[in-house]
Design brief:
Elements lengths: L13 H11 L15 E5 L2 E4 L4 E4 L2 H5 L8 H13 L12 H13 L4 E7 L2 H18 L7 E5 L8 H6 L16 E4 L15 H16 L4 E6 L15 H11 L3 E5 L23 E4 L11 E6 H8 L14 H16 L2 H16 L8 E7 L2 E9 L4 E2 L2 H15 L1 E2 L1 E3 L2 E4 L7 H16 L10
Parallel strand pairs: 3-14, 5-6, 5-7, 7-8, 8-9
Antiparallel strand pairs: 1-2, 2-3, 4-10, 9-10, 11-12, 12-13, 12-16, 15-16
Helix pairs in contact: 3-10, 4-10, 5-9, 7-8, 11-13, 12-13
Length: 458
């Protein structure tokens, strides 16, 4: 099968495409008065091209923390085409299944922590969060504790934008203007070592464990189904917790019969230097949600993995009366299998750590700049927190980080993302050393022009 990497023949001019976009498409996270558009039409490795022919270095993993194996992998396109020609879709509801979803489930149980032998597929990470919340509630109900409906989540945690996942997310903007959110969700503080002022002078984990115990006491231990959290907070700004945080949280939850959901939608499949980030951090989760890197973005797919004792209960009785049309989609599962094989064959999990080393070294000068509070690197993931005051660590207003990433793209052809006051990078795991150096040098150059007042000099 011949698949070309040549520039596509566009059916409309770049101006027409952008005008049609502004007229018809609603973009997540884009202010209504914005006329900015960047129409991406082609990709190869860690590079993408827009409709105007501009070459851009993708330091975002296709904009959303994925693209582990890079853009334009012909071998994945061929797998998708072959599978679509053989079986494009059939339901996974009731007794029906397909060979690709079965093989992928088996493959995942070999990568996941020991004891995770139950898998349910979704179309993405937000759906996985919703499914996990329903699953843990059902688990307790079927075991004779129907009052365990509460979910503990964290401020600055991100679990998607659907009703359940959005309710568990710790960002007010996710739910702005949409009315009441999911009931029975209790938020606690996040572990954020760069901001010790959040903890009143106490050691961070001591404060957070005490706060968690208090929240459990106030809600009632017998009313809480689970806690949900990311091993490393992605949307919160690439924040790795203190090493004792998750083990101590896990101990508290276990003591009260509360399950733990590890949201590995961002951290899974090599992003932070391991197949899954939760085991090394002592989470010992009961449920794991994943998406993104499982297909490197070549097809929409998410998963919920459950420990046997959880999954057996959820699948038992009358079964799990919950599903999505595209769960277990054969094309998505086929490309996921091929993608995981590429990650393993090309040793991209280990390469993630190497990329992190390159970026850490290249960004070292940025840490000395007056507007930079901290440079955080976890695997091939970077968070650069901008501050208005080095002493108090007061963050820059979010528009400043947005202006920085726009200037990175304009001046250097480097795509990054802004999350509040943090500039985030999560490049494909095929990023080359020279590309990492280019992105780091560009970032240092732009940040060297950023004043404490939040203004960029020309």
């Amino acid at each position: 099968m011949a698949i070309s990497h040549a520039a596509p023949a566009l059916s409309h001019s770049p101006d027409e495409l952008e005008a049609l976009d502004r007229r018809h498409l609603i973009h997540p996270l884009l202010p209504g008065d914005s006329t900015d558009r960047c129409v991406i039409v082609r990709g190869k490795g860690s590079t993408v091209w827009d409709a105007r022919g501009n070459e851009l270095l993708d330091m975002t993993g296709a904009g959303n923390w994925l693209a582990q194996v890079g853009h334009g992998r012909v071998e994945l396109a061929e797998v998708m085409a072959e599978q679509a020609g053989r079986l494009s879709y059939f339901t996974s509801f009731s007794e029906f299944s397909n060979d690709q979803s079965i093989q992928l489930a088996k493959r995942l149980t070999g990568l996941a922590p020991q004891g995770f032998n139950r898998v349910l597929f979704t179309s993405g990470g937000s759906e996985a969060a919703d499914l996990a919340i329903k699953a843990v509630r059902l688990y307790h109900s079927r075991r004779g504790e129907p009052d365990r409906t509460w979910i503990i989540a964290r401020q600055m945690g991100y679990h998607g934008s659907t009703y359940g996942g959005g309710s568990a997310s710790g960002f007010d903007f996710v739910n702005q203007g949409i009315g009441p959110t999911l009931p029975h969700v209790r938020k606690v503080s996040p572990p954020f070592p760069f901001h010790p002022e959040m903890y009143g002078g106490e050691p961070i984990t001591d404060f957070l464990v005490r706060e968690l115990e208090q929240a459990i006491e106030e809600v009632g231990p017998g009313r809480i189904a689970a806690m949900i959290g990311e091993p490393v907070m992605g949307g919160g700004g690439v924040v790795d917790p203190p090493s004792d945080y998750w083990p101590r949280v896990r101990e508290v939850l276990s003591r009260h019969g509360i399950l733990l959901i590890a949201d590995e939608v961002v951290t899974g499949y090599g992003r932070t230097g391991s197949w899954f980030a939760s085991p090394a951090r002592g989470m010992a989760p009961d449920v794991i949600t994943t998406a993104k890197g499982i297909t490197s973005g070549y097809a929409p797919l998410g998963t919920v993995l459950m420990r046997d004792e959880i999954g057996d209960v959820v699948a038992g009785g009358d079964g799990f009366l919950h599903g999505f049309t595209y769960c277990g989609h054969p094309v998505g599962c086929a490309v996921a299998l091929a993608n995981l094989n590429l990650i393993e064959k090309e040793e991209l999990v280990a390469r993630s750590l190497l990329i992190g080393d390159w970026l850490r070294q290249g960004l070292a000068p940025a840490a000395e700049l007056p507007a930079v509070g901290e440079v955080r690197v976890t695997g091939a993931t970077v968070g650069i927190e901008l501050v208005a005051d080095q002493l108090t660590r007061a963050p820059m207003p979010p528009p400043v980080a947005t202006a920085v990433v726009k200037e990175l793209q304009r001046a250097h052809g480097v795509i990054a993302r802004s999350y509040g006051p943090v500039i985030v990078m999560a490049p494909p795991l095929v990023l080359e050393e020279g590309e990492a150096a280019r992105a780091a040098a560009a970032t240092v150059e732009v940040l060297s022009r950023l004043g404490a007042d939040g203004r960029l000099s020309s």
